Amino acid sequence: MRHVVHKRAVTRKEVVSGGVLAVLLTLLAVLAFLASCRGDVEIVLSEELRLLPDDRSAETHVGFYLLNEGNMGSNKATLDFLDFKKGVYRRNIYAEINPTVPKEMGDVGNDIAIYGSRLYAVINCSNKIEVMNARTTKRIGQVEIPNCRYINFHGKYAYVTSYAGPVTIDPHYEQLGYVGKVDTATLEVVDRCLVGFQPDELEIVGGKIYVTNSGGYMGAGDLKGYERTVSVIDIATFKEEKRIPVAWNLHRIKADKRGDLWVSSRGDYKGYPSRLYFLDREMQQVTDTVPIAATNFWIDDDYLYAYGAEYSYVSVEEWAFSYAIVDTRTHEVVTRDIITDGTEKNIERPYGIMVHPVTKEIYITDAGNLVTPGALYCFTPYGKLKWKVRAGNIPAHFALLPQP
Amino acid sequence: MDVLKRRALLAVTLIQVATGLLSAQKITGESSRSPREERFVTEEKTVEGKIILSQVENHVQNETPTRPETPSQPGTPKQPTDTTKVKTMHLDDFVVYGSPLMKEVIPVQKLSGEQLKSLSSFSVADAIRYFSGVQLKDYGGVGGLKTVNVRSMGTHHVGVFYDGIQLGNAQNGQIDLGKFSLENIEEVSLYNGQKSNIFQSGKDFGSSATVYLRSRTPRFAEGKKQNLRASAKGGSFDLINPSVLYEYKINDHLSASVNGEFIHSSGKYKYRYKRVHPTSHEVMYDTTAVRENGDIRSVRLEGGLFGTINEGYWRVKTYFYDSERGIPGAVVNNRWMNPQRQWDRSFFAQGVYRKNVTPRYDILINGKYAYDNMRYLNPDTTLMLIDNTFKQQEGYLSIANRYSLMNWWDAVLSADMQYNTLTSDLAGFVFPKRLTTLIAVASAADLGKVKMQGSVLYTHVRERTDSGNTERDEMVKAAPEKNEFTPAFFISYQPSDRQNFNIRAFYKNIFRMPTFNDLYYTDIGNTQLRPERTHQYNAGFQYDNEQKGKLVQQWQVQADAYFNQVTDKIVAVPKGSGQYRWMMMNLGYVEIRGVDVATSALFEPFKELFLNLRLSYTYQKAQDFTERENPFLQELTYGGQIAYIPWHSGSVIATFTYQSWQLNYSFIYVGERYHSSANIPEDYEQPWYTNDVTVSKRFRIRDVGLRAAVEVNNLLGQDYEVVLNYPMPKQNYKLSLTVEI
């Protein structure tokens, strides 16, 4: 090219042309430089955040795991750990401790629990239960259960609810859910017991497994499509014994000190609200309804800590969040203010809730907008903010790690 | 000069003026002419319109391609001044874009003709990536969803027009550009704001940015009555892609064309996830897998009638598309395959009629009927069985009137009506119907050095719902009526008649309606949604230069700086907990500050070797200023770069032509970005860039023209993702052969 230019007398126009060429080549060079910027993709290491050491909490528990769900399809289920004694919050520890697991922990963490020396994380859209060492968070293996939801334990077995029961040849099949019985030694599913549609949380008390059936896939647009029962499975025979009617679209179930059950319903997100029900274990029926929305709750000692998130597009176009503490003996609402210092106004979407059994400190997570990180809040038993920390995407489920 | 010759010359000149290809001075060599004279020439066109047309067609066809297409980006594309070399002009340029006023006021980018053909691109989406200011969202593969986002305002703000009439999707507002094959497309152009020609339908005024796709118009060499073109492509992903085009000249005033295309691909390609440790740099995992369920099978059939009448023309077009595809889904831990399927069947028929009624008055009528059927199946036995069908219908009629008040002053009044319906077997779905009325008043003035254009669009939307699949008592009410007035104003200034330099600026305020899904989708829709608005402020310049016989034969540069606001942005917010319920809300606020630069040049380094170089560069700072209830969480996202928008991006296209050989190299660069507005390490995405090369050769065997091409895409085999967890193909190939009789 240069050769051609030199042969001619340099005119002003050619200077301009040369300038243009220079500009174009410079742009090319810039692009080439930018292009050199890509390197190998790195795994993301954990981050350490310093909080105040908490010796009282550390007396009984080393700390707790917080499972961040991560939005569906984002593969961003992550684990955080709070060490009470050191007062250190480590965010996103799984990938650093288990860096060789392809595509990390997985998609949508739905439940977490510690049983014996192991930590079990139910990863809903990765169709697996991740099994780790509870102390080191080192991966031990995984249990394959499609669309797994919640986990509970009894004896040497883990029991896991799943939405994905057997399928008939009918092209318009409906799929019952089931409870899978997992041998914790071999991590194999040894038995399955069919329950209702889309079973969620399960509780084990008095030799029975109580499973909330939601029917969440069936109810869109029609309230009566939802399930409204709790399935009762006998542990010994692993057969469904009966179904106890409660309310539409059930979600959570937890036993109180006396072994009676507290069940929450999600409602239909329209006119039919979320509620909290008392299921008397002796009578095997619902004997009381507490008029609070209970999206999620935690029972500590004789008290049930609940929050409710309800959207109503029938009345006002607004989200309504409410908090309440219920006395499980009297079924009375003790207070409607878990948080007393006004912090609740800043919480966009309360999601996870946990109470320390000794200090009675209350932990509440804010899931924010679901696609960016949420936050973890620690409140004193009197509802005053102690500290807050950024968590992962959709911080949701807690597992307290006892002292050895 | 005999009459015929004079007319032919005049016609060519007119085309050049009409399409803004040349400034006045070039028409008559070196002498400069006033805009008034230019106007005079173009007015003559309307008198002799029809005759000139046929002359041009014949003239054009006699030319054998001896030199490459001139650069068509940026802005007003240039043609050689030598009138005998005009070969790409035809009906559309002449008639549709015939307005003499305001051609270079609005930033436009085009890809057409040979250059478009030579790109390694399959669908319209692939071509649009080369424009500045554009980000393409690509889910990967032949059948993967591809949507375009212009200047970070969001996919819904881009109007896509196919042969002059907008493609609609009232259901989700999303036009999958991956579905539009480049096979029959002759020109792809992108306008920021709106098209410069104000003589257009109301819908043309109705988007923040507009993509125009122009399919081939029949044209015949002298003495020929029919054309046949057949092509076949094949290559990676088990691609089989034959197509055929037949054009027939019924008489001098009427021609017809039919076009068919079939695409089959298994969509299988290898992808790789490799991660290293940030401190030790040791490989932690390195997994290669094959993308599954990305297959596609589609058929496209088009037919058209093209007629000219005294002082005008008319066209009728039908379009049919039928496809089945797999939806490959996100690749996540322990789940490397998804079984979801989608079937699409679309049909539309559209017509346009245009006539110059009096020397001062023109009328343009557009009409369309469209039917779309989409079936989505989720047979995943680990998830809910979903098998839903959605049916949409659209009726559209538009009348645009132009009146020349003065030689230098046009006024336009357009009125459109559009009716949309959507039905489905989705449980709990109400059946919405929407009647949209658009009235646009626009004016353009040419004051010599200053040109101005202004428009106001009035939009009225009325919706009704049937109880659909709900029980009557819980029937969702229809969204309230909407009345919107939205203005746009454009100005350009050319300091000197001698220089092809002009500066320009515009402001436009427009909105996008919430889609039927946003408003009515069972349990998610929110009828109280307001339209999502944009405000655009743009200032820029353009410079064209041409030097015959020099190394750099011609070059152009255009640059624009802009500030955009997106208010009342419609975002999905979660509702309740656990079961992934979402709710649509008007929550977001985004500010975009950007610079788009596009340059092109034509070199002739050696005799008969031409290099056509196009470069584009985009800088965008697109920040999320959405206020949040939680100030602690707001710290993370406030002011953050919004999801998937790189700060820096650019492209290079270099086309070397030597006689019948052509080598095309193209490069796309997308800089670092984040996949959410929380700009944290967890959400960081590395830059990616692809190198594509195409070699083609034309040859003739007797009367048959052939073109053979070989493409290699992603030459360096880079592993990258455009969308999180949707891996893109590594190196891939394509072969094609085209036969023209």
What is the mean pLDDT of chain A?
A: 89
Residue share in helix of chain A: under 10%
Q: What is the domain tally of chain B? A: 1
- Can you identify the CATH class of chain A? Mainly Beta
Please give the count of helices of chain A. Answer: 4
Mean pLDDT of chain B, to the nearest integer, reads 82
Quaternary structure state of the chains depicted: heterodimer
Number of domains of chain A: 1
Unreliable stretches of chain B, pLDDT < 50, 5 or more residues?
A: 1-102, 576-580
Query: Would you give the CATH topology of chain B?
Result: Maltoporin, Chain A
State the CATH class of chain B: Mainly Beta
CATH architecture identity of chain B: Beta Barrel
**CATH arch. level architecture of chain A:** 7 Propeller
Class inferred from helices and paired strands of chain B: mainly beta
Write the topology of this structure.
The complex is a heterodimer of chains A (404) and B (741).
Chain A: H1 2-7, H2 12-35, E1 47-50, H3 55-60, E2 61-68, E3 78-83, E4 88-91, H4 94-97, E5 109-115, E6 118-123, E7 128-133, E8 139-144, E9 148-154, E10 157-162, E11 178-183, E12 188-194, E13 199-205, E14 208-213, E15 229-234, E16 239-245, E17 250-255, E18 261-265, E19 275-280, E20 285-290, E21 296-300, E22 303-312, E23 318-327, E24 333-335, E25 350-355, E26 362-366, E27 373-379, E28 385-393, E29 395-402
Chain B: H1 3-18, H2 24-27, H3 35-61, H4 91-96, E1 108-112, H5 113-118, H6 124-128, E2 134-138, E3 146-150, E4 158-162, E5 165-166, E6 185-192, E7 209-215, E8 226-235, E9 239-251, E10 254-265, E11 270-276, E12 283-290, E13 296-309, E14 312-326, E15 341-358, E16 361-378, E17 386-406, E18 409-424, E19 431-447, E20 450-466, E21 482-493, E22 500-512, H7 516-520, E23 532-546, E24 552-575, E25 581-606, E26 609-624, H8 631-637, E27 640-641, E28 648-658, E29 661-670, E30 673-674, E31 684-685, E32 688-701, E33 704-713, E34 721-723, E35 726-727, E36 732-740
Parallel strand pairs in B: 4-7
Antiparallel strand pairs in B: 1-6, 2-3, 4-5, 6-7, 8-9, 8-36, 9-10, 10-13, 11-12, 13-14, 14-15, 15-16, 16-17, 17-18, 18-19, 19-20, 20-21, 21-22, 22-23, 23-24, 24-25, 25-26, 26-27, 26-28, 28-29, 29-32, 30-31, 32-33, 33-36, 34-35
